[in-house]
């Protein structure tokens, strides 16, 4: 426990019952979790395989695994579960699939799949808005662990009654497809555990200690799942910060932090007050801002770090001007202060704000990584590989079969496939199974039969391999043996574009790093999880992401762009009285910065061809003005900085020409 402060040490050592660490940003909550995992293992209190840590995103889970690996070596760490709620639910359902009335290798439907079903079931002609609202209502019901019947009872409006009715039919459709959606990954395990005390006892035997990060953002169903897993004894450590609750719009219930105290009268609460992340100026900004929200107990964080740089507030003309300034400043700091690219983050309210920033960064040749915005999964070769994986994972998936058999093209035409579909339907078999049966093949032309036969043999071989190798190893094998890679090569005009597309397949493989073997079902499920969340390793690049996605992270220099009224706080929040949540979002943004913080706003924005005038965010006025350096207040300094940026710009352009 070397290097921890006294309350942190207490939190790590405490195993006398349920524990809540409630503390502000950068106070070492996540650090307490990693240290506690190491401590539980090192003291022999629990073996790694009986410990589970739950984080909010895949990325956070990955980071935590890395942090723990540094503290706990080799075998001792084996079996440790560091997962998101959804991965945990998935693992549960894979083990308990029979109880959940699912067959092995069930699929996970994402938002698009969900929408397709809802569209199909809803009254014809319903507008997209209405469909989305139905989708949200079904999801909200599931996040509160309501069954279709309970949702119908709870429905108040006509729209809610309609959604509840659809929910029942939607669920029946999922069942028929042997599929679940993301919300089911929490709801189904929860219902099973609540209905069967023996099952719950069995799982508590398996998971003997539970640690939960970002507890303020759990929704109703997730909270109840925690209670089931922690049991009455409450072998659980939760950490959270009510000031960072920013997912209410997705069903998160920060009041769960209070519930914990009611559900466990013996709950121990530890507060942390020292911030280790930010300079004092940045911290004062954060403290002053969040104090404007009503609080039961005001937290006052302090930092040992000096004042540091003033917080810059930039008044820009428009978002292109803003983007140019940000890019030039990053370039300058990288050169002059030797701050690595990966230590910069540009944060925004909405993903649509990334475009001008990307352009400005590209112009200066600054490497960047956009979280959540890439349409990676839509790239042709990636989509093809995914379909192959789905065929391996789930022979029932006819749609995936149809795409896989066409990539690369074999001697199997549309007529053959139609014939096969008809025969398969008659026999009550999925197409991929029918395609492997001699009886069917005999009825086709010899060429088509040979094509199908070859396909089936490749699938069988890969399916065997999937049992033995990890998902990350399977992807390159698949690319090679399916003929996908050769197809991509034949489609590319030059080597460079082939390598680029091949790199996409390599990146796909890298997403599975950390996932175990365990057959193709695990593989496809992991993939479905990734497709809905953050993914990919940004490497050493400037990070562009939404404020929501930045939770839990830290960077040496942070730019929060678009600090305008109507954007941050967002328009909708002004009407709906959600200003406090927007203020928390700003608080999250500010507290990501270790050394340097820039808050910028534009005077105007182009919308539908006309120009709108914007006002700076009201949050900027709520900051301690003495810690800010606003445009126009220190002309000498500004001129010097402008010169530096100009030089950085010229350097970058020179480098561009130097590259030929
Ligand atoms: N006792 C300590 N001594 C030195 N550094 C520490 C200590 N505790 C935490 N830190 C460092 O402070 C930073 C913030 O810690 P951490 O990310 O755990 O905070 P957090 O409370 O989880 O923040 P957030 O609320 O943003 O998630 C990290 O870089 C961490 O390594
Ligand atoms: Mg944290």
TrEMBL record:
Q: Name one GO cellular component term.
A: cytosol
Give residue ranges for domain UvrD-like helicase C-terminal.
280-552
Q: Sorted alphabetically, which SUPFAM superfamilies does this protein's record hold? A: P-loop containing nucleoside triphosphate hydrolases (SSF52540)
Q: Where is this region: Disordered?
A: 626-647
Give the record's keywords alphabetically: ATP-binding, Helicase, Hydrolase, Isomerase, Nucleotide-binding
Determine if Nucleotide-binding is one of this entry's keywords.
yes
Entry EC number(s): 5.6.2.4
Highest taxon above the source species:
Bacteria
Compositionally biased tracts (Basic and acidic residues): 628-643
Which positions bind ATP? 23-30
Q: Which reaction does it catalyse?
A: ATP + H2O = ADP + phosphate + H(+); Couples ATP hydrolysis with the unwinding of duplex DNA by translocating in the 3'-5' direction
InterPro entries named among the record's database cross-references: DExx_box_DNA_helicase_dom_sf, DNA_helicase_UvrD-like_C, DNA_helicase_UvrD/REP, DNA_photolyase_N, P-loop_NTPase, UvrD-like_ATP-bd
GO molecular-function term, one example from the UniProt record:
ATP binding
| One Pfam family in the UniProt entry | UvrD_C
Photolyase/cryptochrome alpha/beta domain residues are 1-90
> Any idea where the UvrD-like helicase ATP-binding domain is?
2-279
Query: Tell me, what is an example of a GO biological process annotation in this record?
Result: recombinational repair
Sections of the chain in a coiled coil: none
Q: Which family does it belong to?
A: Belongs to the helicase family. UvrD subfamily.
Know the name of this protein?
DNA 3'-5' helicase
């Amino acid at each position: 426990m070397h290097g921890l402060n006294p309350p942190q040490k207490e939190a790590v050592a405490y195993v006398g019952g349920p524990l809540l660490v409630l503390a502000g940003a950068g106070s070492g909550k996540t650090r307490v979790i990693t240290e506690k995992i190491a401590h539980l293992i090192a003291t022999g209190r629990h073996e790694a395989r009986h410990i589970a840590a739950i984080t909010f995103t895949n990325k956070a889970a990955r980071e935590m695994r890395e942090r723990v690996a540094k503290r706990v070596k080799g075998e001792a760490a084996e079996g440790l579960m560091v997962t998101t709620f959804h991965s945990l639910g998935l693992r549960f359902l894979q083990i308990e699939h029979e109880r959940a009335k699912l067959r092995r290798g069930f699929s996970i439907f994402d938002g698009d799949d969900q929408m397709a079903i809802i569209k199909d079931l809803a009254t014809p002609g319903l507008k997209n808005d209405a469909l989305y609202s139905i989708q949200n209502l079904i999801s909200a019901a599931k996040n509160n662990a309501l069954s279709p019947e309970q949702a119908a009872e709870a429905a108040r409006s006509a729209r809610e009654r309609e959604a509840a009715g659809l929910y029942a039919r939607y669920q029946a459709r999922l069942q028929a497809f042997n599929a679940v959606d993301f919300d089911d990954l929490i709801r189904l395990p929860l219902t099973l555990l609540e209905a069967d005390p023996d099952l719950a006892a069995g799982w508590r035997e398996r998971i003997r200690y539970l640690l939960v990060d970002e507890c303020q953002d759990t929704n109703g169903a997730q909270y109840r799942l925690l209670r089931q897993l922690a049991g009455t004894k409450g072998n659980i450590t939760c950490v959270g910060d009510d000031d960072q609750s920013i997912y209410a719009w997705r069903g998160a219930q920060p009041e769960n932090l209070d519930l914990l105290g009611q559900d466990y009268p013996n709950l121990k609460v530890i507060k942390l007050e020292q911030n280790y992340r930010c300079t004092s100026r940045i911290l004062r900004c954060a403290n002053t801002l969040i104090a404007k929200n009503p609080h039961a107990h005001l937290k006052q964080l302090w930092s040992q770090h000096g004042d540091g740089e003033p917080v810059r507030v930039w008044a820009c003309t428009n978002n292109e001007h803003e983007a140019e300034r940000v890019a030039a400043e990053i370039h300058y700091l990288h050169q002059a202060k030797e701050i690595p690219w990966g230590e910069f983050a540009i944060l925004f309210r909405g993903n649509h704000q990334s475009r001008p920033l990307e352009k400005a960064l590209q112009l200066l040749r600054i490497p960047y990584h956009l979280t959540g915005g890439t349409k990676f999964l839509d790239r042709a070769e990636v989509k093809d590989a995914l379909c192959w994986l789905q065929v391996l994972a789930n022979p029932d998936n006819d749609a995936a079969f149809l795409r896989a058999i066409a990539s690369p093209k074999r001697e199997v035409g549309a007529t053959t496939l139609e014939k096969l579909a008809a025969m398969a339907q008659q026999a009550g078999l999925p197409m991929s199974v029918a395609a492997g049966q001699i009886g069917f093949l005999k009825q086709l032309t010899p060429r088509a039969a040979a094509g199908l036969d070859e396909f089936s043999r490749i699938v069988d071989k890969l399916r065997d391999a999937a049992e033995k190798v990890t998902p990350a190893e399977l992807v390159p094998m698949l690319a090679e043996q399916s003929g996908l890679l050769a197809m991509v090569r034949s489609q590319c005009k030059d080597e460079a574009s082939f390598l680029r597309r091949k790199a996409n397949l390599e990146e796909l493989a890298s997403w599975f790093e950390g996932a175990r073997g365990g057959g193709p079902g695990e593989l496809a499920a992991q993939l479905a999880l990734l497709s809905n969340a953050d993914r990919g390793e940004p490497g050493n690049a400037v990070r562009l992401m939404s404020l929501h996605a930045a939770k839990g992270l830290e960077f040496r220099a942070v730019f929060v762009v678009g600090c305008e009224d109507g954007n941050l706080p967002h328009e909708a929040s002004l009407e709906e009285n959600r200003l406090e949540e927007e203020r928390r979002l700003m608080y999250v943004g500010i507290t990501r910065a270790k050394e340097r913080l820039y808050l910028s706003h534009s005077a105007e924005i182009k919308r539908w061809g006309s120009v709108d005038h914007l006002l700076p965010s009201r949050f900027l006025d709520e900051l301690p003005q003495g810690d800010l350096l606003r445009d126009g207040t220190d002309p000498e300094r500004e001129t010097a900085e402008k010169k530096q940026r100009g030089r950085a710009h010229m350097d970058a352009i020179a480098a561009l020409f130097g590259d030929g």
